[in-house]
Every structure is written in structure tokens, then in C-alpha cells.
Amino acid sequence: MDLLMKNITLNYGKKEVLSNININLGCGIYGLLGENGAGKTSLLKLLCGLMSPTGGSILYNGSEIGKMGITYRVNIGYLPQVTPYYPDFSVVDYLLYFATIKGISNGKEQVERLLNEAGLDSVQNCKMKNLSEGMKRKAAILQSLLGEPPILIFDEPTAGLDPNERNKFKRMINRYCDNRIIIISTHLVSDLEQLADRIIVLSKGQVIKQGEKTNLLTELYGKVWESKLPIEMIHKIKPEDKIMYKDKEYFTVKTILNEKPYDNSEKAVPDLEDLYSYYF
After folding, report:
1. Model's pTM, two decimal places?
2. Burial of 76 per CB tally in 10 Å (0-12, 13-18, 19+)
3. In a 3-state reduction of DSSP, which class is residue 107?
């Protein structure tokens, strides 16, 4: 299974939103990173078939998705950035509705299983409009999983979720990752640490870096430093310093530089937060 983007461009009027995108996705979990306005959501909508590119082509197993139509879209589980819901539907009816329009024969069985797995069975009869934003988000995540589609696309999936719920999402996705293409766009970079196999870095509508997560982090070795500094220096830290810890006497900063920033600085192991800071 593969999902191939060839020379993709996208224009909104005279504005070029995406430029010369070339990405080949196989089975695995991909993290899509980029600043606000980088074009991440637009790229995800193209992959879902919700928009057509201005130029280039998107191929699923060798066929253009625009020509495949519904034959392609039935393979997609999509969570948009803004939570979709019907206010007066109960949680269970909301999920059964999506199961019906997806044509899932054992929809009731799948809905019951997902509700139990996500811990939403206790609120399944509550109306969607009466749920917290986090609960609505969880229900929307479940609708994307209905039918166990081979392609899962998540746009800011854990927005509004507390740390425990974010961990539940990560455990759930890890259970669904076999033989699937999973794409996760998020500003909560730490969520990708335990999920993503590969990273795609998008900036100003262009892919500036992509590859295995471990390989991209390896490129940062020797550029990430941790420094423990006396508290009186807190107003003199460099713009590139990020405060990690702080107590009454000392604070610790992480700095991404080619050279040692302070006398007592020590090399640190890079993580995805560092990768994001390095490019943005």
C-alpha cells in the first residue's frame, strides 16, 4: 500500500499555499510538523480528497485519487481540526450515524467496542452539545476509526485533551498502526515522540525535511545543549534558550547551537521538540 504525492501545488487565488510537494507514504505513522500557516491542513484535505490540487497528482496504489472518487474515500478515516458533531445526537447515535453512512455492516458492534476502549461508554447516552470539548474530541476520534480504514488522517487530534486522555489516544493509535498509513499533524510535538516512525517538516508550503525520526534527530547531535545557571542570570539568557527547569537557586536551559553556549553546558540528547525548534 502506498500514497504518493507527485509535484503537488495548491493555490488559493493568486496565493500559492503548497509548492512542489513530493512525498511517498507507505505503512507507518507519520508526524507532520510545521508552523501556523505552513499548509499542513491544506495538505491533509488534499489527501482526503476534499480538495483538488492546482497541479501535480496524488496516487493511491498507483491510481489517481481524483478519478477513484468514493472508491478512494472509503479508505480514509479523517479527523479535521475543528471537531465535527451534531449537537442533539447522543454520543452513541453520533457514532452509529457515521457507521451507517460508511456502510459498516457490524456498526453497532464496532461502536460498542470503541466506546468501551475509549472510556466513553459511561456518557454514550449524553447529547454531544452537553459534553466537554475534550469529550467531543474523543468521540470525533472514534468516528474516524470506524470501519478500520487503511488510511487514518488526524489534524490536531489531542487539542483539548488532558494529559491522561492524550496518553489514551497514543495507546489506541499504537494498537491500530499495523498495515496502515497514519498521518498526524500536531503542535503538541511531544505526542509524536512515542508515535511517529517518520517526520515530515513543512514550512511556507514546502517540504524542507522528511525522513526516519531517528535519522533526523541524529543530525542534531552535538547541537543541543543543557546548561544549569544561577537564578540571577535568568534575565540574561539568550533568545534561543528554552527554560526547562527552575527552582530557587538555579534554572536549566536547553539551547540549540553549533557551539557551546555557556561554560558549564553539556551536550543533550535531541528530541522532537528540539527538531521543531531547530527549524522554526
Report:
1. 0.92
2. buried
3. helix
Average pLDDT, whole number, for the chain?
92
pLDDT at 86: 87
CA distance 55 to 74: 24
- Rounded to whole angstroms, the Cα distance separating 38 from 35 reads 6
What is the phi-psi region of residue 86: left when phi exceeds 0, alpha when psi lies from -120 to 50, beta otherwise? Answer: beta
Q: How far apart are CA 240 and CA 255, in angstroms?
A: 6
239 vs 246: CA distance, rounded Å: 17
Contacts of residue 170, Cβ cutoff 8 Å, sequence gap at least 6: 191, 194, 195
Backbone angles phi, psi at 247, to 5 degrees: -135, -165
User: What pLDDT was estimated at residue 184?
Assistant: 96
Contacts of 280 (CB under 8 A, 6+ apart): 34, 35, 203
Instruction: Quickly count helices (H) and strands (E) in the chain.
Output: 10, 14
Contact (CB, 8 A) for 28 and 197: yes
In terms of Cα–Cα distance, which of 187, 188, 194 is closest to 173?
194
In contact, 91 and 131? CB cutoff 8 Å: yes
Q: Give me the residue label for grid cell 447515535.
A: 93
Q: Which amino acid belongs to residue 255?
A: T
84-112 confidence digits (pLDDT tens) = 788 899 999 999 999 998 989 899 999 99
